[in-house]
Write the structure tokens for this entry.
Amino acid sequence: MSLSGKTRVAGVVGQPIAHSMSPVLHNAWIAAAGLDAVYVPFGIAEGRFAAFVQGLRGGSVAGLNVTLPFKGEALAAADEATSRAAGAGAANVLVFRPDGSILADNTDGLGLLAAFAEQAPGFDPKTGPVVILGAGGGARGAAAAFVEAGCPEVRIVNRTLAKAEEIATALGGTVRAYGLDQAAAAFEGANGLVNATSAGLANGGAIDVPLAATPEACVVMDMVYKPLTTPFLAGAQGLGRRTVDGLAMLIGQAIPSFEAFYGQTPPASVDVRTLAIQTLGL
Ligand code: NDP
């Protein structure tokens, strides 16, 4: 890689940031496209995010991806937000415009829908209810994306019912809240089921829900991508359900991010999925 006086800089900000896959994906695309550009990880201490972002209004950086724990602050730091970011209540993309203003966007939902389109061909969010497990940032973004895609009913199932109810209130009439003990009722007639809890991360096991209560045609997705086939997905596959993995979502959110930062579609010649699998040791 050679850097010139005109190198276009973008990056990802989070804490911790060392293990982010975004620099691997974006720099592989930059190299393949032969761009005079670079994508840098920024590890910013909590409490310093707003000052960091405000300092970039000068235009030295084209844009940022934002990851935990700063997605909410990113939305608040921007002058304008897309309806996707406003609906999700969080931004994973900030674009620094030439006039010094900041636009917030959220491509996580696009990534989620792209993952379903790629790995579950024929899945149509418009044709029936979907269920989302969890009520954190990932769940709210997913719910907003399904609402925007025309899903007739989004059911949020969460251990803490009040947090599911908050999302339902924020997103309106097509979103309904359920407690974890009501999961079987929520699964009835569902077209899709997304695990957006961090349960598997904490204890290494699958979240305990009655997957057998989902219809046979229900497509089951897990946002977690390490391991690629999580215990939750393995359980769904054991019941014969079609499944979608979190790595497809990660790549799916990176593509529109790259377009926002570098003004072009990433080159299709790079097999970023294989690259990510090798880098993550999956
Ligand atoms: P949050 O911490 O904001 O939310 C976590 C949710 O998981 C909460 O609703 C919490 O419930 C629930 N939860 C945690 N532990 C348990 C448990 N033992 N039993 C039941 N529920 C539990 O996380 P995020 O929304 O930011 O992320 C969720 C997951 O999605 C993470 O694993 C993250 O890595 C992944 N993710 C993947 C992306 C991708 O591109 N593939 C993008 C975004 C996220 P409660 O409210 O009751 O505490």
Remarks:
- The radius of gyration is 19 Å.
